[in-house]
Amino acid sequence: MFVLGIESSCDETAVSLVERGKRDRIIDEKIKSQIPLHKKYGGIVPEIASRSHLEVIDNLTYDLLQDADKTINDIGLIAVTQGPGLIGSLLIGLAFAKGLSFSNNIPLVGVDHIHAHIESPFITNMNSIEYPLVALVVSGGHTSIFYLRSKFDITLFASTRDDAVGEVMDKVSKFMGLGYPGGPVLDRLYEKGDKNRYNFTFPRMSDGSDDFSFSGYKAAVLRTYRSGSIKNESDDFYGLISSFLNSVTDYLILKLDDAVKRYDPKSIIVAGGVSRNSLLRKKLSGSFGPKNIDVFFPADKYCTDNASMVGWLGYELFSFYPENNYFDKKINSYSRSRFIT
Ligand code: KG4
Ligand code: ZN
To answer: What is the CA(100)–ligand 1 centre distance, in A?
Structure first.
C-alpha cells in the first residue's frame, strides 16, 4: 500500500510517499523548511508559519507524486498530523488532507505528532526494536518520557512542566547572539569549551514528581552570561555553552535512567529534534545501563519534523484501527505543547 504522509504542525511543511505492507520503505519525501522565514525573529511566528504552509503544501504534494511517477489514485491511505502543534499550521495540513481524502475517496488517519516521533526510529530499525520500550522525546516543543508496552499501549512517565529542552537551547542561543535554531549551533560549539567551567544543579520537583523542568536552566545560563559580562568568543563564553549542554544532557539521561529502573524495558528510543545532538548521542551510544539495553535513534533526517514518520505510523494505525476513525485523545493529552496549552 502507498501511504501519503503529511506534516504541518510547526515550521516544516512535509509530505512523504511511504510504501508499507509487502515492502516497507520511504519512496520519496519533500520538505519545505521555514527556518529562513523565522530566523530574524529568533523563534517561530505562528501567522507566518500558517501562511507558508498554505503557499507550498499543494505543490509539494504534486511534486512528490510526479517525481515518484504516481498519481493520487495510487494512494491507499492518507496520514496527517492531527496535533499537538500550532493550531493554524495544523489546520492547513488537516484541511488539505481532508480535501484530498474526501474528493478521491481515500481513507484518512490522524496521527499524533509525539507518537510519530517515537515511531521514527522504526523507519530504519524496523526489525530490531523490541517492546516493551521506554521512549525519550526531546524536541523544540516537547520533552517527555513514555513507556510503551506495545505500539498502542502508551503510558506517560514524565513531561516538562515548563519549557521544552530544545526551546531552552533555542533561547540560550538567541540571548548569546548565536542565531536560530539554537540546538544545532550550540551542538557545533560544544567542543570549543570546558564542560566543567560552570556548575548547574539538576532541577527537582518539590512535589516529588518525575516531571522535567528546564526554565531554571534558562534562567541560570542567562544570569551567568549577564552577571559575568561574558565576552563573545571568550573561554567563559564557550565554557558556558559546554557546561550547559553537558549538564542538560546528563539531566535527560538521569530521568531516562529513572524510567528504565521503573519499567525494565527491552529497548530505548530517543527521538525528536534534540535527539540529533552529538553529545547526547555520544553519551547514549551503544547500550544503556547494567542490562545493556539497546538504544535506538532515528536517522538524522527523521529526528526533526518530517512526514515519513507520520506516514509510517499512519499505516500502523490504519492496520490497528481499520474503522478509519482514529482520534486517540488519550495520546494527545500526553504531550505538553508550548503552543496550544
Ligand atoms: O522535532 P523538531 O523538529 O520540532 C518539534 O517538534 O518541536 O525539533 C526542533 C528542535 C529545535 O529546538 C532545535 O534547536 C532542536 O530540535 N535541534 C537540536 C539539534 N538539531 C535540532 N538540538 C540539539 N542539537 C542538535 N543538533
Ligand atoms: Zn516534532
So the answer is: 30
